[in-house]
Amino acid sequence: MDVFAALASPTRREVLRLLRERGEQPVQLLADHFAMRRPSLSEHLRVLKDAGLVTERPAGRQRLYSLRPEPLREVADWLTPYERFWRERMAGLREVLDGLPDD
Amino acid sequence: MDVFAALASPTRREVLRLLRERGEQPVQLLADHFAMRRPSLSEHLRVLKDAGLVTERPAGRQRLYSLRPEPLREVADWLTPYERFWRERMAGLREVLDGLPDD
DNA sequence: TTGACCGGTAGGAAATATCCTACCTATTGT
DNA sequence: ACAATAGGTAGGATATTTCCTACCGGTCAA
């Protein structure tokens, strides 16, 4: 339910990256890439699922997880009003740099 | 140091919003908008400062905090590779909607 | 100089997060 | 039917977060 909290964990961000790069994955394949036992990864997957960032689909005895990027829009939307701030500051920095003599 | 973790708290996101909308603010003015004692807000401010999201400047007996949006670029950059995913999905949804009969 | 004010730190309580091992169910292959 | 496999749940240890009250130092104003 809370996208920002779900993204706070490096492990969970890494899970999202794996799903983005590889597409749908069973738990075991994901778990292979972490120095962590499977039940711990299961908990991370549950947090991601509660946040709507992944979906799960049974396939035989496996469960295939895939990326569901929609909730990331909330983050992108949240960032929007800050963009002009860092653009202005980057522009200011650019001016300062342009004002320096060539080396 | 960890921008994503700093953004996980609704209180801290609200602090950033206040600083964005009002500019530089002393602690007391910020604290007035939360149902929380001042020392707790001080801790949130420290987390934001450690993440580089605010700067602090002494002014008499006050300390003025202001927004420092640069670290948010890290978040925006992290989001970038996911953008095409939700765009594709939105496009797909659009097609479905377009295919529906007018009501 | 002294009292009021601003805001940080100390230390503790309670809740939550993050890991583990042990165990359970469901599915598959022999 | 049975052993092996996939993956979730239970419950516990520990660490971290988030709040509080009490207190402290620095600054300003009378």
Shape of chain A: elongated
Order of helices and strands of chain A: HHEHHEEH
Mean pLDDT of chain A, as a whole number?
A: 90
What is the radius of gyration of chain A? Answer: 19 Å
Distance between the termini of chain A: 53 Å
Question: Short summary of the structure?
Answer:
With 103 residues, chain A is α+β, with helices and mostly antiparallel strands. Chain A has helices spanning 3-7, 10-22, 27-31, 38-50, 72-99; strands spanning 25-26, 54-59, 62-67. The termini of chain A are far apart.
Walk me through what this model shows:
The structure is a homodimer of 103-residue chains. Chain A contains 5 helices and 3 strands; from the N terminus they run ααβααββα. The first copy, chain A, is α+β, with helices and mostly antiparallel strands. The model of chain A has no long low-confidence stretch (mean pLDDT 90). Chain A is elongated. Chain A binds a DNA duplex (30 and 30 nucleotides) through residues 9, 11, 26-28, 31, 36-40, 42-44, 46-47, 58, 60-63.
List the helices and strands and how they pair.
The structure is a homodimer of 103-residue chains.
Chain A: H1 3-7, H2 10-22, E1 25-26, H3 27-31, H4 38-50, E2 54-59, E3 62-67, H5 72-99
Antiparallel strand pairs in A: 1-3, 2-3
Chain A binds a DNA duplex (30 and 30 nucleotides) through residues 9, 11, 26-28, 31, 36-40, 42-44, 46-47, 58, 60-63.
Q: Which tags fit this structure?
A:
14% strand; alpha+beta; 103 residues; DNA-binding; three-stranded antiparallel sheet; homodimer; 3 strands
